[in-house]
Amino acid sequence: MSNGTAESPFSPSAEKSEISSNNPSAFLSQITGAKVAVKLNSGVEYRGDLQCVDGYMNIALEQTEEYVDGVLKNQYGDVFIRGNNGMLVFCFRFVRKFGRYRRIMILNFLG
Amino acid sequence: MADTGADQLDDTIVSEPLDLVRLSLNERVFVKLKGDREIRGRLHAYDSHCNLVLSDVEETVYIMDDEDEDLKTIQKQSEMLFVRGDAVVLISPPTQS
Amino acid sequence: MLFFSFFKTLIDEQVIVELKNDMSVRGTLKSVDQFLNIKLDDVSVVDEVKYPHLSAVKNVFIRGSVVRYVHLPGAVVDTALLEDATRKEAASQASKMGGR
Known about the structure:
Chain C: It is found in: Nucleus. Chain C: GO terms for molecular function: poly(U) RNA binding; U2 snRNA binding. Chain C: Belongs to the snRNP Sm proteins family. Chain C: Keywords: mRNA processing, mRNA splicing, Nucleus, Ribonucleoprotein, RNA-binding, Spliceosome. The structure holds three protein chains of three kinds. Helix content of chain A is about 10%, strand content about 45%. Chain A is mainly beta. Chain A has one domain: SH3 type barrels (Roll), CATH 2.30.30. In chain A, strands 4-3-2-1-5-6 form a six-stranded antiparallel β-sheet. Chain A is globular, with a radius of gyration of 15 Å. Helices cover about 15% and strands about 50% of the residues of chain B. Chain B has a five-stranded antiparallel β-sheet with strand order 4-3-2-1-5. Chain C is an alpha+beta fold. Chain C has two helices and five strands, in the order αβββββα. The chains are: A mainly beta, B alpha+beta, C alpha+beta. Chains in contact: A-B, B-C. At the B-C interface, helix 1, strand 2 and strand 4 of B face helix 1, strand 5 and helix 2 of C. Strand 4 of chain B pairs antiparallel with strand 5 of chain C, so a sheet runs across the interface.
């Protein structure tokens, strides 16, 4: 049992050095500046640099690309995304671990 | 105390997402809404719910015709428009896009 | 409270309320509350043919949450004043958040 949780990639200890908080919005504010993809429940995806996040999980992105069904549809300099559209945030960040780069993808799911 | 708060707000630094919207006041913005609707207009007011007031508004409604797979668009104009925030998906200042 | 105050300045003006079910109602704005519920007098439905069931109705109460747009007369809106009020509201929201 306990062994299983320790092995889990989502266990708090697994990325402790990288992500010290397990609170979604605190985590999001920790990764500001990172390249992220925000996927809305409608299926539309926004990729850009995360500028900031607030308590409603409104999101500001820079250099944003809008993808519909994987096809680039639009580009925006800045974009404000309203928080209560159910969304999934992927963080594309490369961290050095065990001597090699490993891509971490963090999922954060809201309503 | 209140004064320093106001001074900080004059900065063009985006420290929270709604700052992006505040910096777009009296600018033409692009707003994407639920239900395949888009709006372009000059922003005059917003609040934390994303309720908006815009002028010289051009609304585009996209209607997918299932039978012939045609994407129809309807354009509508309005001189002054209040938009209820719950339909808002995103807001972007279009000048730098 | 910004939009509540804003709508109060528009009382007795002609507006068109577009609902989320695509119906539009034209009328005189008679009252508004903090939820942006709206009362209209002298109403007429914009597309009579499509929505004939309201042609006998003289006034309506519209729940704020079903509103998509309110089309306003441009001339009666002081946009500079509105922008100032918006900035003030934003500042007061920010100081509230800081106080927490």
